[in-house]
Every structure is written in C-alpha cells, then in structure tokens.
Design a protein that fits this description.
Chain A is built from 13 helices and 22 strands. Chain A is α/β, with parallel strands linked by helices. By secondary structure, chain B is an alpha+beta fold. The relative contact order of chain B is 0.10. Classes of the chains: A alpha/beta, B alpha+beta.
Chain lengths: 459, 580
C-alpha cells in the first residue's frame, strides 16, 4: 500500500475521475478517495499510463472535487471470505448491512475470478428437482448449470425464483443448497419480499445476501455480482457446498455497464450497450459449474426483465448465447391466471439430456418431454386457426391437440406456490394428460413406454 | 530502440509500449510476469500490443520484450487428440501447472517436446526434396499416419536420413547444404500455408445427417455457414459434423462459447467410435477451446491457430474438416479490440475490415494440389450467432457473401422440437451441380431426381400451408390433403433426426436414399389407392407406415426397410379392396 495521497484530479465525469500522477499505478488497482468532508469512497483503475489515470468510483462521484485526495491501495479488488459469510447480509460493495461485525477473512479473494480450464470441468449431470412441473419435465435443471429466467415487468419471476430456491434438491435427497442472493438495483420493496420469504422459511440462515438497491450507486452494481460469485466459488470449491446463485436483475446490471461505457466515451454497440457486453456477461455466467477434484457446485439462476417483452433485446439475447438455456415467463399465461406462467416452448435447458433418463429421473422422461412439447406446440398453433375457421373445420387429430393445449396449461403448468411435485408425479401427470390424445397421434413416444406407462393402454 | 522497452499505458487487453523496436504481429512478452502479446499497431516510438492474458495488476514502467517472432503454432506429431486454448497451449498441461483455474504468465509447448516417436523415412540419401515433400512417416494415432514434410521454405538433396525413435526437435534429416530438418516445424498463424493450385470440389463431405447430405450437401474443400439464434441447435449441428462427417481429420474450434459445452465434447468424444474406421473419434481430432470468459485476444487468435493446423494436415494429403463455433464471437473479439484501439467503427461497431477478415479466413478452405503433388482439402463450417436471430447483421451478411452452403437454423422449428432445425425453405447449397455425378456413381443413378422431388414437395407444402392457415385442411381437395400428409412424412420421418439417439444420430447415404424412395413410394401407392376409391383416412393411417417410420430408431434399419415398404404397399392395397 502506498501512503502517498495525490491531489491531482483534472476532470470528473459521471462515475469517472481523471488524474495526473507521478508514479506508476497498476491496471485494475483499488483506489481510495478522501473527500473534503472527511468521507471516503472506493474506486478502481480503468486505464493507466505515464500521464493519466482513469478511476471508476463505485459509490458515484457526488461530492468529489478537485481537492479530493486519492490513494492507490497497491492491489486489485478483493473480498474477504470465510465460512462466516453464510447467514450474512452485505451491501453491494461487500460491507455488512445487517448490523453485524465485519467478516473476519480466512483469506482475501480476487473478485474478477479466473476462468475455469474447460479441461478441468466435469460435465453437469445431476438432476435438480425444483418441484415445478414445467421446469422439471421440459427444461430440467442440473447441478452446475446456469439457467436464467427471462421475464418482464409485472410478472411473478421473483415468486418462481424463491420457489426454486426453497424446493430445489437432488432427487431423493434432502441435501440443501446454500443460496447466494445478489440484488442489483432492485427496489427496497422487492428486496424486502425476498428477505422476508427467506426469513419465513428459515433459508436465510443458509444464505448470503449481497444487496445493491435502486438508490445505491449504479457503478457499485458492476462489482456486486462479482462479489457474490467470489463468495459462491469460495463456498463451493473450498468448502464443498452446493451453491445456488440467484441474481436479480441482470437488466439493471447491463444498464450500469452502458452508463460507464458512455461516460468513458466508448464506441457503443447495439442499442448503446458496449461491444464487450458479451464478454463481460460471460465472465459472470461462466463462473457456474463443477470441477474435477472438488465436491461443491455452483448453479446460477440469473433473473432478467426483458425490456418491452422483447427476447431479441441485447440483454436477453447475449445472455441466451452464454447460458445453458432459459426459462421464459409469459405475460399471456400470467394474464390467464396461470402460475407459474412458464412458456415451455421458447424455454430450453441445454444440459437436460445429460441429467435425465434411467437412473437419473425416469426412463420415459425424454420421450414424454418431447411429446409434451410437440403436442402443446401444435395445440397452440391451432388456436390461431380456430379463431378464424372455428372448431368445426378441424379434424379429429387437430381437435385433440387443441384440447390438450388447454389441459396442459390448466392441469400441468398450473400449481400453487408451495406445491412441490416429485418428478415421478410430474411424469405420471403428463401421461394422464397425454392419454386424452389417441395413441396413434403420439408419434414421439416409444412403443415400449406406451406399453409401460400409458394409463389406459399399458400392458 | 532495442528489443526491450517498457509499458506506457494499459487499458484492458490493450497495452501500449514505448522504446521498443517491433514489427507488426511480433510476439512480445509483457510485464514482469511475461504475459504473451502481439503487436497490432505502430505509432512512432510507441507500439500497441494485444495481450492474450488478463492484465490487471500490471503497471506502467514494467518491461516489454520483443521475441522477434510472429504468432506461430508448433506443427508435428502430437497434435492429434490434443485440446488447446486459443494460442495452442494444451489445456491438460495448463491444468497440471495451475490447477482448475487458468491463471496467467504460464507457458506450455504446443506439442510435447520430449516424447519419442518412431520415424520411418520414405526417402533415401541422394533424393532431391522440395518444399512440402514427405520425408518420413510417424504412426501418430491408431488411424492416422503423420507425414513429416520438408518445411515450405526449404529444399535440397538428402545427405543423411535417419530411422528410429526421436523426439520432435531432434534432427532426422540433413540436406546437402547442411540444413537440418526436425519433425516439428513452426508456421505463423496469420499466413496461409502454400499449395500448388486449387481444384473445383467434386466429392461431398458425407455427414450422416439427412437434411444436410440429401438436400443441402457440402463438398470436401467447401465452405458452409450455419447462422441461427440461440437455442436453435448450432452447436449440436457442429458437433454432429465433428462426430460423423467422413473427413479424415477434424479440427474443432470452440471460440468464445460455453465452458460446459466444451466439457461435454471433451468427455464424449473419447468414447465415440468413428463409423468409417471403427476407432475412437478422438484419434482424428484436434480441439481448440477458448471459452467466452477466457481472454478476448486469445479468442481472436484461436480461429487462426485452428485453420493453420487444418492446413498442415491438408498438406499431408488429408481431407480436413474445420468447425468454428462461433465466428460471431471471433468477430466480437475483433470489435472489442478495435474499440480499445479507438478505431473508426463500421456497421454496428464492428471494425470496417470485418468482412475482409471473414473472407480471408474462409478463403483458406479449399481442395488443393499440395506442394508434394497430393490431393488434400480443408472444409470450413462456421457457426454464426446473429443477435436476435436476425441475419441482416454484419457477421451473417459478411459470411453469406462468401460461403457456398447456407444452413439456416430456425427458432420456430426449434420450438416445435424439430431437429435439426434447419429451415428447408431458405437454406441453400451451391454444390449439387458439381456433386451430382458423384451421387449418381456412388449411391444411385436417380439420386438427384429423388432430391428434386422431395424438395419440390416441401415447396408445395409451404404454399398449401398458407391456404390451410385460412380455411383449414379439410377444405382442401383430397389430392392436396395427401400432399400435405406426404410432406409431413418428409418432415417427421426424414428431415427430423435425433442427434441424441444411438441409432438415428447417423444415417448412411444408402439409407437416406431408401428412406426418401420409401416416402415417394407411399405417395404413389396412396394416389393409386385413392383413385381406386379408398378413403384418405384409411390409406394414411395404415399401421405399416407407422412401423416404417418408427423402425428408423432400430438397429439394422437399412436391411429391414425394403420389407417394411413391401408391407406398406400390401396394406394400402388391401385398403382399396376393403372399400370395393
């Protein structure tokens, strides 16, 4: 740590402070600013050269003037980690928010996080039962996966995330996850909702919360998820915990990224978001996984609200290219009063095939899931046709598909907020609903599964 | 100015050095930790370097050393079965040195330097060798003979040639001018390796994927682009090609993609058996994995590293297939570096040279006469990830202007779980004209005609579907309803192929042909039956047709198919008899 304090600020622009300085400062170094009223702020070096240093101030630059003293701390940003993190609520910058003592560090971990060597990863293949039929049957989640919830304003994504956090477990196991919850720019109301729910169910004792609220500095949002993931990595890879990271709302994070980019006068990419947003998001999402030689795992549930319900907006779009699928919440289903309003058609889990089947869920799972998709997709498509020509113009096959779509939404998707279905229960329910369709139209089902599981035609 | 200078400025992966003598694309070592970088711009006494590793903690004033070499790959026995990062560091070696997380400042040789290989010469003392001449052979894996070639810039008469076990840096051959040749050679990745001439492609790259081989074939030495939104199956398609295509060597570049996906490939490939050689697929594969969170400059380099390795095997006379997943991430890496350089952007922030870089890359594909007079090819298949699935964006457009095959993935099909979700209406291949003769000679005389019939049926269906959307299918005349039924059969039975099913994942050309013929047989038999008075319902719902379709998931389908078609014919005919 250098003791020298510089007072050589030349420009302040948005969250950025520019200063001339005399000694070499390293890239990414942590900076402490002492304001004239005696308060301090923290920042990080974004650009450094012999003539000029650019510092990004995490808490915003309000109150910074040309006399503000700047000290370079000689190190990059680190989070003190220890097992005591579990059960704590911290600010978006990693300071206690629950009135408790500072974290006594077992060691300090670099928050940027190194990339996992792809060769050292293990393939995620342990099925996680969330108890939600739509997810378990059609977009099955596995340990070590990153599966975002693509939602939009006014939809119950928070309820779904909490239900998952509450119910998620390995099949036939009571082993719980440690939840690392990372709030970025959400309202105090939403935060309280999460907190009370975690408290109510006792999950808080098994959780770490990093909280950056809507009125906290936007720049801080850029480090909050990195802190959360650093804590998650520590718990998973040094203490063998199975960690479920929920972060909400990625959209706010990306807005902050854009804000900093604009302040730095960078060339913007699509819709003003910086060209490196893909890489930046990847540095968060890719920190999910399981690795050789370690027991623990990191499973990620990022929540993002799609601006204007638009799945092609850069935030969901780039996320979708990095994450292993997505769970899409549908306004249409929500308005029909269906909870959880998950539209399984655009939803996807890329790691599903590795986590289902004999010995993992049930032998007929893949077949049933394909058939559910196909039948529901056809049924939904036919609704458009029926609106024009009426049901009379449909043949028997189409009529059955149409009816199935309604059954699927009302009996299969719909469940209550504390209903925890087993995967067997989910699959049996699927068979029951599929049996409303004549077997000869169920071309995705292997005959041997029909013989074994079909409620009326099994042998 | 010397080959040693110091850091002046650091901004992310872009570092400016001062007081160093450097040429464009020289490889430099940056900072106290000696991070690897490459010179990408010169300004007076300053030079701009893109650094292949994370730069935080580096400060101005630290040393920069010029190695005087351009970014090169090591080529020689030991490439196959390897998994590299973007700058040819073996990931396994990195794991040994640093554990599961990739830290920085660690170097690893591209090929193992101390392993002994058995070198068998194919030339003798006194022979004249030219650039690219084969001087000996190493059995690198069970299936692949690695041919040791004279590097492109050397030639002469053999003074001495050895036989026996050597490592890649030991001299195995001496020319009359005293030039010593080793099994390893280095080649700068940004320079295409030389060849004598390019040929027109005339042989298909058989992939075992029905929609690809049958409707939109790719030639050996050709280029293909696979654009598609996320979740439409780009990666699965690429992996299917890496698994089942009949290339002799496969180079798979995971460029800026998911870590878990690479792991899946890494854990799956060693267990897969090549249908052509009955040996593990890994024996013919080189993998490059630079995932999305690994340094962006190395991602930019990964594509060049891959294609240089592919060209090297081509020069031995092999057919090489290279998959790049995804070229969009490569383009984004260019964009990121360009914007750090404060270059004037072209469309959507991409550098103005984007399309010329894409063109240069795809132009390194081709079927060639190698320096030694052999015939070798590099086929390039690039995945493109257009934002929002909209292919009007610069990377897709830049790619489509160059490639000859377009496999357009479709989110709508993916949502219906129609896989591979390649849209048969807007995809195209410009190769059938040059490949038809091969199909006639090697599969069936009428192969091209069957293809035309199948694709025109799909076209007709698309038109009929528009009417059905308005009035429902019952309002159509019976013959058109039958056409719809046949087209559905093409889609569900023929075009859909389950990549995760042990049997269905690969379909030999002969089987593809028989399946297509079976569909047309159903059509003609059904037409006859309906003309003779049978009801459409009865004809369409014959059980033997369902059996014919379901049986494709069973082993030995090729042998059963004729019988199944026969049964179908019989049953359709009996539907007529029942009516009369």
């Amino acid at each position: 740590m250098t003791e020298k304090e510089y007072r050589t600020i030349t420009d302040v622009k948005g969250p950025l402070v520019f200063l001339n300085k005399t000694e070499p400062v390293s890239f990414g170094e942590i900076v402490s600013l002492r304001l004239s009223d005696g308060s301090t702020k923290n920042g990080q070096v974004l650009d450094t050269s012999d003539e000029m240093v650019v510092v990004q101030v995490f808490e915003g630059t309000a109150g910074v003037d040309l006399d503000t003293g700047i000290r370079f701390m000689g190190d990059v940003f680190k989070l003190p980690v220890s097992k005591d993190l579990v059960g704590r609520i911290l600010t978006g910058a990693g300071k206690p928010r629950d009135g408790g003592p500072d974290i006594v560090a077992e060691h300090n971990a670099d928050i940027i996080g190194a990339a996992i060597n792809p060769y050292s990863r293990r393939s995620p293949e342990e099925f996680i039962q969330t108890g939600i039929s739509a997810i378990d049957s059609c977009t099955s989640l596995v340990r070590g996966q990153k599966l975002p919830i693509f939602s939009a304003s006014g939809l119950p994504h928070n309820d779904i995330a909490l239900q998952i956090a509450r119910q998620a477990k390995l099949k036939d196991s009571d082993e719980d996850f440690v939840v690392v919850f990372c709030a970025m720019g959400i309202t105090a109301e939403e935060y309280n909702f999460f907190r009370y729910d975690l408290e109510r169910t006792g999950a808080l004792e098994n959780a770490v919360l990093f909280v950056n609220l809507a009125d906290d500095p936007a720049v801080e949002r850029l480090i909050t998820p990195r802190l959360a993931l650093t804590a998650a990595e520590y718990l998973a890879f040094e203490h063998d915990y199975h960690v479920l990271v929920i972060y909400t709302d990625m959209t706010n994070y990306c807005e902050s990224l854009r804000q900093i980019g604009a302040a730095r006068e960078e060339v913007p990419g699509r819709r003003g978001y910086p060209g490196y947003m893909y890489t930046d998001l990847a540095m968060l999402y890719e920190r999910a996984g399981i690795v050789k030689g370690k027991e623990g795992s990191i499973t990620q549930f990022p929540i993002l609200t799609m601006p204007g319900d638009d799945i092609t907006h850069p935030i969901p779009d780039l996320s979708g290219y990095i994450t292993e699928g997505q769970i899409v919440i549908s306004r249409e289903l929500h308005q029909k009063g269906i909870y959880p309003p998950i539209n399984v058609l655009p939803s996807l889990s890329r790691l599903m095939n590795a986590g289902i089947g004999p010995g993992k869920t049930r032998e007929d799972h893949k077949s049933v899931s394909d058939q559910l998709y196909a039948a529901y997709a056809q049924g939904r498509e036919l609704r458009g046709l029926v609106a024009i020509v009426g049901e009379d113009a449909l043949n028997e096959r189409d009529l059955q598909m149409l009816k199935f779509a309604d059954l699927f939404e009302n009996k299969f998707l719909r469940q209550s907020r504390d209903e925890d279905r087993t995967i067997e229960g989910t699959l049996d329910l699927a068979w029951e609903l599929l049996s409303s369709i004549n077997t000869k139209y169920l071309v995705r089902l292997d005959q041997k599964w029909i013989d074994k599981y079909h409620p009326t035609e099994k042998k | 100015m010397s080959n040693k200078g110091q850091i002046y400025r650091i901004s992310g992966p872009v570092v400016t050095a001062i007081g160093i003598k450097a040429a464009m694309f020289d490889v430099v070592r940056v900072g106290d930790e000696g991070l690897m970088g490459e010179v990408i711009e010169l300004h007076g006494d300053k030079c701009v370097i893109q650094v292949y590793e994370e730069t935080s903690g580096i400060r101005p004033g630290e040393p920069v050393i010029n190695t005087g070499e351009t970014l090169s790959v090591a080529l020689g026995p030991g490439l196959l079965t390897q998994i590299y990062d973007g700058i040819q560091r073996p990931l396994e070696a990195l794991e040994e040195k640093m554990g599961v997380f990739i830290t920085r400042g660690v170097d690893a040789d591209g090929i193992v330097m101390d392993k002994k290989w058995t070198f068998n010469p194919t030339v003798k003392v006194g022979d004249v060798v030219e650039p690219g001449s084969v001087i000996g052979i190493v059995q690198e894996t069970e299936t692949i003979e690695h041919k040791i070639m004279v590097p492109p810039n050397k030639e002469g008469t053999i003074r001495e040639i050895k036989q026996g076990d050597f490592n890649v840096t030991e001299t195995v051959c001496i020319l009359d001018d005293g030039t010593e040749l080793q099994m390893m050679q280095k080649w700068p990745v940004r320079t295409p390796r030389p060849f004598l001439q390019k040929y027109a492609p005339d042989t298909p790259l058989v992939t075992g994927q029905r929609i690809l081989d049958f409707l939109f074939p790719l030639a050996k030495g050709g280029t293909a682009g696979i654009p598609g939104p996320f979740g439409s199956g780009k990666t699965v398609t690429q992996q299917q090609l890496a698994k089942w295509s009949d290339a002799q060597i496969v180079v798979y570049i995971g460029c800026g993609e998911r870590g878990n996906e690479m792991t899946e490939v890494l854990s799956e490939f060693p267990h897969l058996i090549d249908p052509n050689t009955e040996k593990p697929l890994m024996n013919r594969t080189v993998m490059i994995a630079n995932t999305s969170n690994m340094p962006v400059a190395a991602r930019e380099a990964s594509v060049y590293t891959g294609i240089t390795i592919a060209e090297y095997f081509r020069d031995m006379g092999y057919d090489v297939a290279l998959m790049a997943d995804s070229t969009s991430r490569w383009a984004e890496a260019m964009r990121e570096i360009s914007s750090r350089l404060e270059e004037m952007p072209g469309e959507e922030g991409y550098p103005a040279y984007l399309s010329s870089r894409l063109a240069e890359f795809y132009e390194r594909a081709g079927r060639v006469e190698t320096m030694s007079g052999d015939d070798g090819s590099v086929t390039v298949i690039g995945a493109v990830s257009p934002p929002g699935g909209d292919i009007s964006e610069p990377v897709s457009q830049g790619t489509l202007r160059i490639v000859k095959v377009f496999w357009g993935l479709d989110a709508g099909l993916a949502r219906q779980r129609h896989f591979p979700s390649i849209n048969w209406l807007n995809s195209y291949s410009l190769y059938p004209a040059s490949l038809d003769q091969w199909y006639r000679d090697n599969v069936a005389q009428d192969f091209p005609d069957i293809r035309t019939e199948i694709s025109s049926l799909l076209q007709v269906e698309a038109e009929l579907q528009e009417i059905v959307q308005l009035v429902g299918s019952d309002a159509l005349p019976v013959d058109q309803q039958l056409t719809l039924e046949v087209a559905r059969m093409i889609r569900e039975f023929f075009l859909q192929q389950n990549a995760f099913h042990d049997v269905d994942t690969f379909s030999a050309l002969e089987q593809q042909y028989k399946m297509a013929v079976a569909i047309l047989t159903f059509q003609s038999e059904a037409k006859k039956a309906i003309a003779a008075g049978a009801a459409l319902e009865d004809v369409v719902n014959v059980e033997s047709r369902t059996n014919l379709m379901r049986a494709r998931f069973e082993q030995g389908y090729l042998e059963k198919i004729d019988n199944l078609v026969g049964e179908m014919k019989k049953e359709i005919n009996s539907a007529v008899e029942a009516e009369n």
